[in-house]
Structure formats: structure tokens, C-alpha cells
Hints:
Residues 1-19 form the signal peptide. InterPro entries: DUF302 (IPR005180), TT1751-like_sf (IPR035923). 45% of the residues lie in helices and 24% in strands. The chain is α+β, with helices and mostly antiparallel strands. The chain has a 6-stranded antiparallel sheet.
Amino acid sequence: MKRFLAACVLGLAAQGAWASDDDILKVRAGGDVAATMDALEAAVTGAGATVFARVDHAAGAANVDMELAPSELLIFGNPKLGTTAMQDNPLAGLYLPLKVLVYEDAQGQVWLAYEDPEESLDDLPGINEGAGYIAKMQGALGNLTAKAADG
């Protein structure tokens, strides 16, 4: 699994698209928030995963007369992977389904951001660091965000 992670990191770093703050992975996007989110949603459904919700944080802010830079959250998953994790420990449901935030920073750069599933799940009793579904989740998040970043 370490080789898989290293390959993902090197691949994204070679594109100049990878950055990390603690357990949050970020991918630089070329388009605006709406177009990047549309591309992410298309990639997710194209991969056969289920989209559960798309949350427009900026629209929510506008509804209470507040301003927020463009920011949208996609909540999605594959029940075959998530169920297996929750069978190992029901508390995995606190971290599942998967989520990706697409947002514009103060400099106008758009990013896709998500929490590394290994970091959120492997501390739960019953879930092994080397659980196959964790690597699959990491791979899916890396592939989907890379596709969306390229637009």
C-alpha cells in the first residue's frame, strides 16, 4: 500500500497539483468552482459511484445575507466499499460517504480538497491500516479529483 500511495503522490506532484495540510489532500483545478464540481460529479457517476448530495455553501451563505467565496461539497460513495468499512466498525459511518470540497481561495485559485480515508478510518478499532477498501477509496479519490481538476 505504501508503494501505491507513493505512486499517487508522485503522479500528482509531477503535475504540480498536490498539496497537503495535515490529513487534507488538495488538488489545484484549472476551472471555476461550478465547472470543476460539474466535472467531479460527472467523473463520480461515470465511475459507477452514487452521488448522495451536492451542497452549495456560497448559496447557503447568500440565503442568510452573508458572503462566501464559491464553495461546493459533493457527498458520494460506493456502498460496496463503505458497507465493508462499517461492518468492521459502525463508527466508519461518521466519515462515510466520501466528501470532496471544491472551493475558491482568497487568491482566486480553485481547489478540490478531501480528507485521506486512511487518516480518518485507520484509527477506528477493527479497521486495519492495510484494509483493501481504504486503498480503493484513496485511489478513487485521487483519480476522480485528478479528472475533475483537468476539467
